Amino acid sequence: MQLHKRDVVEAATTLLDDYGLADLSMRRLARELAVTPGALYWHFANKQQLLGAVADRILAQVQLPHGDWRVQVSDLCGQVRDALLSHTDGAELVSASFAAGQSAAMTTVVDGLAAAVLQAGVTASHAELTARTVVYYVLGFTVDEQSRRQWDAAGADLPAPAPLSDDADARFGYGVALLLDGLSARQRV
Amino acid sequence: MQLHKRDVVEAATTLLDDYGLADLSMRRLARELAVTPGALYWHFANKQQLLGAVADRILAQVQLPHGDWRVQVSDLCGQVRDALLSHTDGAELVSASFAAGQSAAMTTVVDGLAAAVLQAGVTASHAELTARTVVYYVLGFTVDEQSRRQWDAAGADLPAPAPLSDDADARFGYGVALLLDGLSARQRV
What we know:
Two copies of one chain form a homodimer.
Chain A: H1 5-19, H2 26-33, H3 37-43, H4 47-58, H5 69-85, H6 90-99, H7 104-118, H8 124-153, H9 168-188
């Protein structure tokens, strides 16, 4: 039976959801698919590339929004957060893939944010940097949120809960709005 | 020989620097110290608590700065980034400990940032949320920066380098300034 690349990515995503990132190894994935590890390396040069493909699968539903630049940025940030939270360790996996430059979908997100902030009057030379600032906030927030959720689900007794922890949407939106206000302020200068 | 808590933290920090977070286990640490794992659990209820103590050790040199609130925020962000970058996987370890509420030093950093932004006119009810927004950016940026540095040092050929990657200080400062501009803009309303 021929092993398709998309079947490998599907199986890896299922393993991720069931066991978490720490237990997602090439060896385990090969066993799950009943193939040799060598068959996986025919599709992916290394584990980083595979994780990048899983990151793209996690972000597959994200759509570049239309409208006012502030709405575009908020909407895109919200979509990325939702996508990451819908898979076990999704935030950690996407952060790692982004840092390794392995996620095409994250490149599209950065490009979309950069195009939006250009409309806010950010210069072309600073648009990608601004987009990355927004992405670092989104990833930092969501990694934290997901860790807390997963520990909570595992019954861990965590001290010092975050303020407003019962309304994570509002907490997330607050930081995005602060960044947008920074951009708006520069627009007025 | 009596096993002191600070000796355990020192040995754990050395293991971290030499082998990275993935290889920092209670078992390995006990072997390094020539004690039984049980001796470690006398000082730390679990690995999360130990990692929290290592996070505090990493952040030990961070000082709450004085002066104008903008200077305080930038300075504190810069100190945290420098501290994280000075240990292997420091950003990842501190992020995880922060999310688990196990790092007293990170609580002090959040409190320091919250006190600074109060001076910017942020209401008391939003000061901690604002401080956390800044922290998420700092952690998101630094996790990314450190991953890239470590892969680079390992000889990995990473595609799509970040813009201005030859000046990480400027890239980091840009995002902090954007958040500060957001706060300043609200101050003027």
